[in-house]
Amino acid sequence: MNTVCVVGASLAGLLTARALRAQGYAGRLVLVGEERHRPYDRPPLSKDFLRGAVGEADLALEGEGEELGIEWRLGVAATGLDAVARRVTLSDGTSIRADGIVIATGAAARELPGSRELAGVHTLRTLDDARALRGDLESAKRMVVIGGGFIGAEVAATARDLGLDVTLVESGTAPLAGVLGHSMAEAIATLHERRGVRLMRGAYVTELTGTERVDGVRLADGTHLPADVVVVGIGAIPNTSWLEGSGLELGDGVVCDEGGGTSVPGVVAVGDCAAWFDPAQGDHHRIEHWTGARQRAAVAAATLLSGGTARPEPARPAYFWSDQFDIKIQFIGHARHADSVTVEEGDLADHSFLAVYRQGDRPVAVLGVNQVRLFTRWRRHLETAPVQAG
Amino acid sequence: MIPACPLASLPRGEAFRLEADPPIAVFHTEDGEILAIDDTCTHQDASLADGWLEGCEIECPLHASRFDLRTGRVDAPPAKRPVRTHQVVVEDDVIYVVPSDEEPNLPPGVTLKGQA
Ligand SMILES: Cc1cc2nc3c(=O)[nH]c(=O)nc-3n(C[C@H](O)[C@H](O)[C@H](O)COP(=O)(O)OP(=O)(O)OC[C@H]3O[C@@H](n4cnc5c(N)ncnc54)[C@H](O)[C@@H]3O)c2cc1C
Ligand code: FES
User: Fold this and answer.
1) Which residues of B touch A (CB under 8 A)?
2) Handedness of CA A133, A138, A139, A144 (dihedral sign)
3) Which of A111, A144, A196, A274 would bridge with A269, disulfide CB 3.0–4.6 Å?
4) Which residues does chain A have within 8 Å of residue B110's beta carbon, measured at their own beta carbons?
5) What's the pLDDT score for residue A390?
6) What is the DSSP letter of A375?
7) Are B108 and A294 an interchain contact pair (Cβ–Cβ within 8 Å)?
8) Residues A236, A13, A30, A36: what is their CA dihedral angle, to the nearest 10 degrees?
9) pLDDT tens per residue, range A94-149
10) FAD/NAD(P)-binding domain: from which residue to which, for each copy (chain A) (predicted)?
11) Phi, psi angle pair for A247, to nearest 5°
12) Given pLDDT bands bounded at 50, 70 and 90, which one contains residue A386?
């Protein structure tokens, strides 16, 4: 293999490039990234960076003095892939022929129709998004957050800590109910309410109001919530539209086997854009969390370098963390397989507890809220005894 | 030299957090070594004493960078800087730590209490 082209210069792309070098690949390595920035870390964008506690330099993902011998093509997007010829076409009209291709284009924030025309409406995915939102927060007093997923809940917490009047609009019963299940999501919901976030449950936004600048949102029941700044946190869609027509199998993300191999030899995909086959769950799905990209980069690199013959280690259950207010939330596994949840330590009301989700007697997921030490033990336990399909 | 804890109260595989400024984590490895490093991860404000000890390495409980307890070196991001190591002395079945006089590598946003 003489040339590898990695498309997407963020967490998954950089870690795969690093893994390729660590596994002995010494050929040409091109890293294509649509954003102008060197790879940076996204999790702080909704937390410490938004709050102003860390600066842009702290977000860098490259190690100090790290030299990977990468040919950087930043500020250009990949616009197409000729899978047979293994040629990536770029937005500046050039193209790159490569023996191996890594697709690591991540995901983009889903938008509300019409929101682009109004100043003061934000999504949060990139450093540029975070800069713009931070700028708006300086003068804003009232914020409405649409969507109670991780990004929405984190932004609401950060803005509340900064002293804003915050309303979180959630269409379901409670923020994070999809991942944590209803009873545990309720504990997080009361945390938000106790810290002064106004929670609107079962509420649908039908309209953003305002002329040039947003002045509020209207809900399906007619309620108008005034706002100087609105954050839309309604999920992310994989950046795979540039691959349409390439012959690569696409579903909700690039469809991959359990080693990151795609339907085309010599092309692997990793990170938020990739739906790997998960033997324990028996399906393909995307994992939109930091640790998923970190754990899988080395596997994808090995798949590429071995021509698909490397046997991947069995995937570990998905792990994520989230920081809201001064609370550390850690979760591993899949709540949807559980038929019971028990609090094993601490108390829901104190916002310091550890809950174990079980299917029958078997632990299938664990939630830690400000229980870092105990959570680490449970995490190890689940990682060494992988969750089986139920 | 700061007294940490009685040797008997720190079984193998366990960690003890010494409330110095910044806090120090003392580990008793499965092999029976006692080693001390700064407790605060250099990436963010996490306590390494809460992490997972394997051999001579501690995995950060939040984002899984691993630090070598003997050298303080970190294996892979997100943490990028090493932690300080401290000398350990065991006398009369008590563990003592001799704090390093180097500058600590604290994560962004974390300052020494004395300077907060
Ligand atoms: C605000 C925020 C907070 C988060 N907090 C947490 C957290 O607390 N815990 C957690 O576990 N996870 C968190 N995450 C998720 C985590 O950041 C992602 O899982 C991770 O960034 C995925 O990395 P990736 O490289 O696959 O994708 P991305 O980070 O999305 O990177 C993809 C890159 O590809 C580029 N790109 C896209 N299309 C093209 C193209 N056609 N050509 C060239 N380049 C292209 C994009 O510009 C981008 O730089 C958070 C994410 C966000 C946005
Ligand atoms: S806090 Fe230790 S690796 Fe992030």
Assistant:
1) 44, 46-47, 49-52, 61-64, 77-78, 80-81, 108-109
2) positive
3) A274
4) none
5) 39
6) H
7) no
8) 50
9) 999 999 999 999 999 999 988 888 999 999 999 999 999 999 999 999 999 999 99
10) 3-296
11) 90, -5
12) low
User: How confident is the model at residue B42, as a pLDDT?
Assistant: 96
CB B8 within 8 A of CB B93: yes
Distance CA A134, CA A126 (A): 12
How many angstroms separate the alpha carbon of residue A59 from the centre of ligand 2? 13
- Check pLDDT > 50 for residue A191: yes
Ligand 2 lined by B60 (C-beta under 6 Å):
yes
Polymer length in residues for chain B: 116
Give distance in angstroms: CA of B31 to centre of ligand 1: 40
Chain A closest-CA separation from residue B97 CA (Å): 23
Phi, psi of B53 (to 5 degrees): -90, 125
CA B25 to chain CA centroid, Å, is: 3
How does DSSP classify residue A77? Answer: -
pTM of the model: 0.94
Give CA angle at A24 (B64, A253), nearest 5°: 60
To the nearest whole angstrom, how far is the Cα of B91 from the nearest Cα of chain A?
A: 29
**Which residue puts its alpha carbon closest to atom 14 of ligand 1?**
A43
- Burial grade of B36 (CB within 10 A; 0-12, 13-18, 19 or more): buried
- Nearest ligand, measured from the Cα of A276: 1
- Write down the pLDDT at residue A383: 87
Q: H/E element holding A86?
A: none
Q: ipTM, 2 decimals?
A: 0.90
Which pLDDT score, from 0 to 100, does residue A63 have? 83
Least confident of A328-332, A386-390, B49-53: A386-390
Q: Tens digits of per-residue pLDDT, A49-87?
A: 999 999 999 999 998 788 899 999 999 999 999 998 999
Domains of chain A by start residue, with CATH = 3-108+237-305 (3.50.50.60), 111-234 (3.50.50.60), 326-384 (3.30.390.30)
Contact B61 A294 (CB under 8 A): no
Please report, for residues A64, A202, A237, A253, A379, the alpha-carbon distance to residue A111 in angstroms, rounded to integers and kept in the order given.
36, 20, 10, 18, 34
B65 Cβ inside 6 Å of ligand 2:
yes
Closest ligand to A242 CA? 1
**C-alpha span between A196 and A189 (Å, rounded):** 11
> Shortest CB distance from A64 goes to which of B51, B52, B80?
B80
